[in-house]
Structures are given as structure tokens and as C-alpha cells.
Amino acid sequence: MSASALPAPLLRAEGLSVAFGGGAGWVTAVEDVSFDLPAGETLALVGESGSGKSVTAMAIARLHAAARTSGALRWQGASGGTSDLLALRGEALRKLRGREIAVVFQDPGSALDPLFTIGDQIAETLRHLRGLKAREAAAKAVELLGLVGIPDPVRRAGEYPHQLSGGMRQRAVIALALAGEPRLLIADEPTTALDVTIQAQIVDLLRELQASAGMAMIFVSHDLGLVAGLAHRILVLYAGQVVEEGAAAEVLAAPRHPYTRALLDCIPSLEGEPPRGIPGLMPNPLAPPPHCRFADRCALAVEACRAGPIPLLDVAPGRRSRCIRWADVP
Questions:
Q1: Across residues 184-205, what is the average pLDDT?
Q2: Residue 28: CA count within 13 A, CB half-sphere
Q3: What is the pLDDT of residues 50-73, one digit of tens each?
Q4: Mean pLDDT across the stretch 181-196?
Q5: Is there a contact between 72 and 15 (Cβ–Cβ < 8 Å)?
Q6: CA 60: distance to chain centroid?
Q7: Residues in CB range of 99: below 8 A, 6 or more apart
């Protein structure tokens, strides 16, 4: 199949930038982010806190009410037409959220209303998004709780969020997100508040749901190890910029940016070697350096790294790196 005959991606980000503030005090949190997300695939956004990964994800869901957002987010509608998500307003935007694009937030305690039972919250969402009658919505809520692996879903549907464990609350939030049968699920660090065993269960659940429903997924994490068996592609962000992109297996096996290598070194090894930290701090977002933003923390940095901005370089088919020394990354 020729490149021109390939189907359009479900989502195409073109030069997405997001700034917060006002007047002369605007701070750019995400700068010129571009990627394609085909239907049915998972894209992982990876980086430290403050890298811009969650800002990017929430911009796609149009959840930055006070932000200044530029670029384009080309969305392939179910009927085949393409629209720019950043141009949607009013009813068109309301129809998008929940039905087409749904979000799993990292803190299930904040995502669930403590005053209503789990079943009532899911049923209300079903009535709103899919027009189900009360009895049908209640039955479907129980079905969704079973789908996400909550034991005894009939009983759990009648319980309040505080009566569920952290892992079960996160499963309930996933069920809530699935209520509208979205074509894109955004999971914003959904395992942050969970222990390691439950983290693995939630990741396995998301992988199974993504595959069975055929939906696309954007998974936000600071942990490359966590996304290893989940993502098809990885986008590594640092200080608001994309620094590396590629197929997940290729990025994990042979990183092409020193920051990606540093993130991989933060993962404990099977040989018992302690994880290494990344020295230094991320640059001040109010005054980012005009050259490579990772240079001050990078062992490979040379004079040329501080001579000016570093563009994203095509280093192999489907691979990009914002590093002039990408071939020297161990």
C-alpha cells in the first residue's frame, strides 16, 4: 500500500503548543508536539514530572480551560470526516468528551463522587452519554464493573468509593471511562497511587480492554518499564519538548537520546543493581535555555549542544531524536 493510500490516523497532532498565564506572563508548558496515533494503537507519553506529558494529554481532551493552545489536533470522525479538536466549541465539544474521547485520571479518589454509589455514578454517565433508561443503565453499570475485573459487581455497585480499595476504585474509574464506548482512552498516570502488584494488574487490564474494544489509547507515565508491554509507540518529553519518538520495542532496546537512556537507568535491574538517579534539575519553564534543554544534565553534552536550538532529527525510519549525538547514546 502506498503512503498516499494509507488510512488517516485517528488522531494527528501538528505543532501542538500549550501555554498558561496571561498578559506578559505566559509560560509555555508544551512546545511544538507532533505525532500520529492510528486507531487501535497505544501511544505512551513518558517523562519526569514537569515534562509536559499530562499537559499534552489533557489538551487532547480539551480540559485546559484557561490555557492558550495552538497548532492542530486532527480527529478522524466515526463517519470519516476530519475535524480540528482545538476548533470545537459548545455542543460539538460536549459530544466529543466521554463518547469519543474519555479520560482515566491518576487519582480515583478525586474522580469519583463520595456522595453517590459506584453503580449510580456509572449509570448516570450511561444515561447521559448513551440515552439508556434507568433500569438498563443500572444493569449495564454492573456489567462494566464485571468487565474491569471487580469481584461481586452487583454488591460493589451499591457501595460508595470509600468502601473500595485503591485498586478497585481505579477499576471503577476505568469502567466509568468506558461507559461511552470511546474510540480513544487517555490514561493519565492511572497507577501512580497504587502498589507495584496492583500497578501491573491495572496495566494488564488496560491492555486487554484496548485490544478487545479496538480503541486507541494514550498512556501517560514517568516509568518506561511500566509501558514496556503496553505501548506500540513511545513519545519521550523533556521540558515541554519531544526529545525522542519511535516504536516502543526500538526505543527501549536502543534509545537515541541521553534523556531516554537516563530514564531507563532509573529502572531497577534484574541483576540487583540499584537504579541511578538523573543528576541536576529540569530547566526553569519561565526561562528555558535557547539550546538543548537537557545539556546541563547530560554526560554527552559538547559545545555544539549549547550553540543553539536542536531540531528533531530523523535518525531511522519511524525514529526521531532531538540530539546531535544520538549515535553515541549507549
A1: 89
A2: 16
A3: 999 999 999 999 998 889 999 999
A4: 90
A5: yes
A6: 10
A7: 129, 180, 181, 182
- Furthest-apart CA atoms within the chain: distance in Å: 68
- The answer to whether the predicted template modeling score (pTM) of the entire model surpasses 0.90 is yes
DSSP 129-196: HH---HHHHHHHHHHHHHHTT-SSHHHHHTS-GGGS-HHHHHHHHHHHHHTT--SEEEEESTTTTS-H
The pLDDT of residue 5 is above 70: no
pLDDT of residue 273: 72
Cell 531507563: give the residue.
Answer: 264
The predicted-structure confidence for 84-94, as pLDDT tens digits, reads as follows 999 998 888 88
pLDDT mean across residues, the chain = 92
Closest CA relative to residue 294, chosen from 220, 251, 225, 242: 242
Instruction: Record the cell numbers describing residue 22, joined without a space.
Output: 496571561
> Which residues are 319's β-sheet partners?
316
Give residues with Cβ within 8 angstroms of 247, minimum separation 6. 232, 233, 234, 318, 319
Measured CA to CA, the distance from residue 119 to residue 116 in angstroms comes to: 8
Higher pLDDT: 318 or 22? It is 318
Q: Is 111 left (phi over 0), alpha (psi -120 to 50) or beta?
A: alpha
Reference 211, options 232, 194, 242; nearest CA is: 232
Q: Is 52 helix (H, G, I), strand (E, B) or coil?
A: coil
The whole-angstrom separation of Cα 263 and Cα 261 is: 5
168 close to 150: Cβ distance less than 8 angstroms: yes
Task: For residue 300, give the 3-state DSSP assignment.
Answer: coil
Contact 135, 113 (CB under 8 A): no
List strand residue ranges (DSSP E) for the chain, in order: 11-20, 27-37, 42-46, 68-76, 82-84, 101-104, 184-188, 216-221, 233-238, 241-247, 313-316, 319-321
40 Rama class: left (phi>0) / alpha (psi -120 to 50) / beta: left
Residue type present at position 108: P
Q: How many CB atoms lie within 10 A of CB 125?
A: 23
